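Researcher: Structure for this, please.
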Amino acid sequence: MDTIPLGRSGQKISRYVLGTLTFAGTNGFETLGSIDVAQGKRLVDRAIEAGVNAFDTANLYSKGDAESVLGEVLQGRRDKLLVFSKGRSEVEDGPNGGGASRHHLNAQLEASLRRLRTDWLDLYFVHQWDGVTPIEETVETMSGFVKSGKIRYWGVSNYSGWALAKTAMIAQAPGFVPPVAHQIYYTPEAREAEYELIPAGDELGIGAMVWSPLGQGLFGGRVSADGAAPNGTRQGTAGWREPYVADPARFTRVLKAVETVATETGRSVPQVTLAWLRDRPGIGSIVLGARDENQLADNLASADLTLSPEQAARIEAAGRPQPIYPYWHRAMWGLDRPTPSERGYLEQHRQTLGL
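Model: Predicted structure, token format:
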């Protein structure tokens, strides 16, 4: 497996990262997975054998229990691996139980380090935008973590384009440390990140890391094109609200395109999905999640799959986002001077507009 730089930094990470949302399965996360320490060791071993060197978790996952499982799994080999976690989510009662304030992030980072049994994190994310805490306070706090050695780098997750840009610009001030990565939701069907997030990250030197690349099971090979989901999938679980699919007919069209390519290549739907995402412009690492070893092995096997340009184009066309303003206007009149990171997406809009 190849490695790539983590945004505009000197740290290299594997193209695939192993996520741990399925670890523990407690405190409201029971339907997502229940991987214990023994199972976790087998998954981590399989990932390392395939070339994975980075592992992603969060204080939110099973309210810290996923971090505890990962921390125990990595004992004795922490120095050779990269560990990522996140803070900001509301994980405690009270007015300061969530947020990106100095108060909350300090407490949550210390708790994550204890659970993970480590003195530092290689990457620490602000898990969600905080519209109450001044961004200067958050940037100063994260910069302080880097300078103290408690984290090596920091990033953000689930930000809007303007919030990402504002954070990056504030972090350019003397004494601050800029973020190097942002985690985004991006699949062959969920392409909203193409409007601003992917080009903005590319321009700002903030690497795009995709979470839930299989659409939380939508492209896991068990959901049919008509939207029916079997029990045992997130979509087959009563009360599970993610992901939001705005246009079911569009999802059906995209899944059928992926299934057709899977048949042509003799590979699984997840493998085709991951291969397509991996080659999209502006995309860096992809966080894989798995409930068992077989699922992880299937996902990892996509590392050697390269779709033909024609196959990739068919999947792209099936899920292409509509050229909303100002992108239809830029596609019409602004292609004389596009930034390199947006050119491909604007050209897609021109095709949709028939130009």
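Researcher: Any notable elements?
Model: The longest helix spans residues 248-265. The chain has two domains: 3-308, 322-355.
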